[in-house]
Specification:
This protein is α/β, with parallel strands linked by helices and about 280 residues long. Helix 2 packs parallel to helix 6 and helix 11 crosses helix 13. Strands 1, 2, 3, 4, 5, 6, 7 and 8 form an 8-stranded mixed beta sheet that branches. It is built from 13 helices and 8 strands. It has a domain of about 190 residues: Vaccinia Virus protein VP39 (Rossmann fold, 3-Layer(aba) Sandwich). Helix content is about 40%, strand content about 25%. The structure holds S-adenosylmethionine.
């Protein structure tokens, strides 16, 4: 067992919230998968690269990195045991033999110095208590000239489709659930530049990337998924049942407008961040 600095996050991602995500990893992969191509185009992984996937979760991006680095390797690191168990199981099912998964806190994990060519992350780098220390640690894991590429959430656009569809629930949200604390910590590009520069990275860029967010087969399926998500349940637990029922009716009606033969998709946007280790 490696040392952990982010104990609150470790508790949360090893508790019911982490288990919930790991059990429904395929739903979350569909939800976030619309940004994979942008992440992988920017990461430009070569056939021999050694890739590090930070906060790899159930490992969809680690598996893709491993396939792309055919004669290299992808290492997924995560603080959550249920996520890592899922990642190992799916990689074995899909016969991805050059992906390995390690338990650890990326902020302080003793990565082999200079042992990676590329570090990537799909939404796994926002939860550090000390971002500068964490990215400096990730930087030490990269060889000189190595690349860091990740995506992280933007502040919701108040006029965007998601804000409008989920407005009846957003009005009831008081605070992030324990696992979601820190989720928006890198949503300001100025902060991203400041953190990565202080951590020793150069050539930092932040690019807004739009993509489809797949919520479900149809409006009812999408509403089921949304209302069962940990951050939503955490906030609605203390709300009177009839208020939740009304909000659910309104959200389902709004989702109905976005039903297509391919499912319910809302436009979303993330920050695509790239930097290099000088
Ligand atoms: C929002 S999930 C994203 C998971 C995965 N990258 C994906 O796209 O499905 C965030 C992940 O970061 C992990 N995480 C949070 N803090 C971490 C830390 N300090 N070190 C390593 N992993 C961490 C969580 O356990 C979780 O699996």
């Amino acid at each position: 067992m490696q040392p952990i600095a982010n104990t609150q996050q470790a508790r949360a991602w090893n508790g019911p919230e982490g288990a919930y995500w790991a059990d429904r990893y395929d739903r979350f992969d569909r939800l976030n998968g619309g940004f994979n191509d942008a992440l992988f185009t920017a990461a430009a992984i070569n056939e021999h690269d050694r890739v590090l996937d930070i906060g790899c979760g159930a490992g969809q991006t680690t598996r893709r990195a491993a396939r792309q680095a055919g004669s290299g390797q992808a290492v997924g690191i995560d603080i959550s045991v249920p996520m890592l168990e899922r990642a190992r199981a799916v990689a074995a099912e899909e016969d991805v033999t050059n992906a390995v998964f390690e338990e650890g806190d990326a902020q302080i994990h003793p990565f082999p110095p200079g042992g990676s060519d590329v570090a990537i992350s799909r939404g796994g780098v926002m939860f550090f208590g000390d971002h500068v220390a964490a990215f400096a640690n990730i930087g030490r894991a990269l060889r000189r000239g190595g690349r860091l590429t990740f995506i992280c959430p933007q502040m919701p656009d108040p006029d965007g489709q998601s804000a409008q569809v989920f407005a009846p629930v957003n009005a009831l949200m008081r605070e992030p659930s324990p696992a979601a604390r820190g989720m928006m910590s890198l949503s300001d590009p100025a902060r991203v530049h400041e953190v990565l520069t202080a951590a020793g990275f150069a050539e930092v860029t932040t690019t807004s990337v739009a993509g489809p967010v797949h919520w479900g087969r149809d409006a009812d399926d999408a509403a089921d998924f949304f209302f069962a998500m940990s951050p939503v349940r955490f906030n609605l637990d203390s709300v009177p049942e009839q208020v939740t029922a009304k909000a659910r009716e309104q959200v389902t009606a709004a989702l109905r407008r976005y039903e297509t033969p391919e499912g319910v998709r809302l436009r979303g946007a993330v920050w695509l961040v790239a930097a290099t280790r000088p």
